[in-house]
């Protein structure tokens, strides 16, 4: 699985023509391998705008963005230069997850393909908007069509963003189905919000989006999106990693997909257990995530739970309702909390964050939210085993959580194996009395690596 990444924020340069300049690469989650297709693969750069047609205005988040209701079929193999779709207003979710009534509002979405390379000043030549095996960085300037420029300056536009994806839709990972389906899907697209005015610069963050299903409670069955900000640049610390993204897709398919056609092993194994616990178990449900990073797994689970569990008013109670608590080191807090604010999590789910250092947790020292008396029905973690020096503290933290619990704790561990030293984890778990209850593997997009999922109890 590979990711389109911007190495620095893009820019819009005004002149005789408006030119979008950017520097991108396509690498694995850790940036240790570049995308190497069989032949040149075209890259799509598309401006997406949403325009208000009448009052009241469509709800938007503080940075001018708002969740998209666009169906996944907007990512067709070939996008026309300009496309629009009108949408009748209804109850929308703002970027903070607050429901905002926009019954009288109607919006129109426009899509503009930006695919005309600007000539290089030094040579007068144009560069192809394509990625080939051996490419490391693609530095481009693209001429923005005049119609798109006018749309950017339109005061009625309530959302502006640019999507970088593969031109062939069959290569882009847009939905949970793309992740779990064996096929050609292999590259995760990227979105960036466009500043509302010329005086503002592009932010140093980009957005990943994954459609996890459709809301059957809405007449038009709107797609349900998980959106996550990550930092622009080469740092891997504040990016989405494979196991978190793939686990969200696995759980979404398990809990939101149809159970018909599933094998007996799937019904009785890990998928069946998760479906019963997360989707059909009555009453309260509390989930704790360790090592949340930017928050893709915890926020994804919160979004799924909000749509598969039809909670009543009594489930608003902290003890008896649905909650997901993300934890990590202090340096992860800013990006994780920003993504929580961006998330469109249904109101019946309580989503929160607290710092947790495993060097403290292994000694049973937890913050007020972790140790607040809620029984943790499920502890989840993804891609947390790569640093073998921290494995003893991780396992002892799990044991301390179990010791403090009034009931048994289940642990869902997801990983993409990266080196042999990680296998020490299983010996440490066994030494602490943790027993494997179920496991599953899933091929990751690209076909060369696997997601491993383990369910432990003690």
UniProtKB/TrEMBL annotation:
Transmembrane region(s): none
Top-level division of the source organism's lineage: Eukaryota
Pfam families linked to this entry: Methyltransf_16 (PF10294)
Low complexity biased stretches: 56-71
MF terms (GO), sorted A to Z: S-adenosylmethionine-dependent methyltransferase activity
InterPro entries: Methyltransf_16, SAM-dependent_MTases_sf
Entry GO CC: cytosol
SUPFAM superfamilies: S-adenosyl-L-methionine-dependent methyltransferases
Residues covered by region (Disordered): 55-101
PANTHER family: HEPATOCELLULAR CARCINOMA-ASSOCIATED ANTIGEN (PTHR14614), PROTEIN-LYSINE METHYLTRANSFERASE C42C1.13 (PTHR14614:SF132)
Protein name (database record): Uncharacterized protein
Species whose genome carries this gene: Grosmannia clavigera (strain kw1407 / UAMH 11150)
């Amino acid at each position: 699985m590979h990711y389109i990444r911007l190495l620095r924020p893009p820019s819009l340069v005004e002149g005789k023509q408006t030119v979008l300049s950017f520097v991108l690469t396509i690498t694995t989650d850790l940036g240790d391998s570049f995308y190497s297709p069989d032949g040149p693969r075209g890259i799509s750069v598309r401006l997406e705008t949403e325009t208000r047609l009448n009052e009241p205005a469509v709800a938007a988040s503080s940075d001018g963005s708002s969740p998209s209701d666009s169906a996944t079929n907007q990512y067709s193999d070939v996008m026309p230069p300009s496309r629009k779709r009108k949408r009748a207003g209804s109850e929308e979710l703002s970027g903070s997850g607050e429901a905002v009534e926009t019954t009288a509002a109607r919006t129109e979405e426009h899509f503009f393909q930006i695919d005309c390379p600007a000539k290089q000043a030094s040579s007068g030549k144009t560069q192809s908007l394509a990625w080939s095996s051996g490419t490391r960085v693609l530095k481009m300037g693209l001429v923005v069509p005049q119609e798109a420029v006018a749309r950017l300056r339109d005061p009625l536009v309530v959302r502006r963003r640019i999507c970088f994806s593969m031109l062939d839709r069959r290569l882009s990972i847009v939905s949970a189905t793309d992740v779990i389906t064996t096929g050609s899907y292999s590259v995760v697209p990227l979105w960036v919000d466009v500043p509302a005015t010329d005086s503002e610069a592009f932010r140093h963050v980009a957005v990943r989006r994954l459609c996890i299903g459709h809301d059957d409670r809405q007449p038009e069955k709107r797609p349900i999106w998980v959106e996550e900000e990550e930092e622009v640049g080469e740092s891997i610390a504040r990016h989405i990693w494979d196991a978190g993204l793939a686990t969200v897709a696995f759980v979404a398919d398990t809990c939101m997909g149809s159970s018909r056609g599933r094998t007996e092993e799937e019904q009785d194994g890990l998928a069946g257990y998760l479906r019963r616990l997360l989707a059909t178990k009555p009453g309260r449900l509390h989930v704790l995530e360790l090592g949340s990073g930017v928050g893709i797994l915890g926020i994804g689970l919160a979004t799924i739970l909000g749509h598969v569990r039809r909670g009543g008013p009594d489930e608003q109670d902290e003890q008896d309702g649905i909650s997901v608590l993300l934890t990590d080191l202090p340096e992860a807090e800013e990006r994780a909390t920003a993504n929580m604010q961006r998330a469109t999590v249904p109101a019946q789910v309580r989503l929160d964050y607290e710092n947790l250092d495993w060097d403290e947790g292994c000694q049973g020292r937890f913050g007020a939210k972790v140790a607040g008396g809620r029984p943790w029905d499920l502890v989840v973690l993804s891609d947390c085993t790569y640093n073998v020096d921290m494995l003893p503290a991780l396992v002892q933290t799990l044991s301390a959580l179990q010791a403090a619990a009034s009931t048994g704790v289940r642990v869902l561990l997801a990983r993409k194996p990266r080196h042999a030293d990680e296998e020490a984890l299983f010996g440490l778990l066994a030494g602490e009395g943790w027993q494997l209850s179920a496991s599953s593997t899933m091929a990751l997009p690209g076909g060369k690596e696997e997601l491993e999922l383990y369910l432990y109890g003690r």
